[in-house]
Amino acid sequence: MKARFLSFGLIFATFALSAVFMISGCQKSVGPFDPSTATYQYSLKGQVVDAGTNSGIPSATVKVFNKVYTTDINGYFTFRVSYATEFPFVVNAEAADYLVGNSLITGPTQVRAIRLTAKNPAVILSETGGSIVAPSHESLTGKSFEVTFPAGALGGSVAVSLTPMEEFYFMYGEVKNLQKSTTDLLDLATISLSPLELSLQKPVTLFVPLPFANDKDSRFPVLKFDPATSTWSYTGKDLVVDATRTGGTVELSQGGIYSIAGQGTYSEEKISESFLYDF
To answer: What pLDDT shows up at residue 188?
Structure first.
């Protein structure tokens, strides 16, 4: 069995996507090299794939800086960047019926594949309320994500989807509205509540299973992702660990992509039949 060791302060972070990147050099060799000249360029080739099947996704939209590309029938795309390009940078991908995905490009020789997670089937909820459950593969105890809508949270019938984003890659950098720390932020759990633009008339309660045990009433910041800018912001809300010590709840007022952040270091090793955590 695996034992996981996790040391935490009070904060968070993460991200799971990838893109098969290979270089093809294409530099013009006239005169001395000038890295600021756009004519000195190379190509990066990538593929957008289904996280469940690893099959290429055709007609996916790929955004690199301010340019937009479309994948071919096998999910491949190619873009060119200047030798003056600074690393790291993020490549974003979207496709119909999938959640947004991305890849952190740290250098010109990096090879990754952007893995998109298919949205879970939507559930029709009305003003009377209800709940939606989504299994988690990272939960310590096998518990699922669950969002509960009280009566009056919705103004009418709405198709709502709850999807864990375990393939999403996060480059946190500086999180807006969150005090800067010298310790890396770790992604404890990430979830999409769709439609992302959903506005609720009453807060809903999201239960999040955690990959470790922690003290009751411990708090972890809840971050929200902005797909337009690929940035994270602290929502001002915290996940509060419940009496089971292996999950917690937070109230949300909008749809969106949310992540629970922990601050510290993480490692795993195989030692016994039980999971162990060191805080």
So the answer is: 87
This model's pTM is above 0.90: no
Scanning the structure block, which residue is given the tokens 């602290």?
A: 234
Cα dihedral sign, 91-227-134-242: positive
pLDDT at 273 over 90: no
Residues 6+ apart with CB under 8 A from 229: none
Helices (H), the chain: none
Question: Residue 179's pLDDT is what?
Answer: 74
Say which amino acid occupies 134: A
Q: Residues 72-121: pLDDT tens digits? A: 999 999 888 887 778 878 888 999 999 988 887 877 766 578 999 999 99
- Measured CA angle at 106 (ends 103, 107), to 5 deg: 120
Looking at residue 150, its amino acid is P
205 compared with 166, residue with greater pLDDT? 205
Confirm if 161 and 192 have CB atoms less than 8 A apart. Answer: yes
Give the distance between the most distant pair of CA atoms in the chain: 72
Q: Which residues contact 203 (CB under 8 A, 6 or more apart)?
A: 153, 251, 252, 253
Mean pLDDT of 64-74: 91
What SS3 string covers 27-91?
CCCCCCCCCCCCCCEEEEEEEEEECCCCCECCCCEEEECCEEEECCCCCEEEEEEECCCCCCEEE
| Distant-in-sequence contacts of 194-197, Cβ < 8 A, 24+ apart | 194/99, 194/119, 194/122, 194/160, 194/161, 194/162, 194/163, 194/255, 195/158, 195/159, 195/160, 195/255, 196/227, 196/255, 196/256, 196/257, 197/254, 197/255
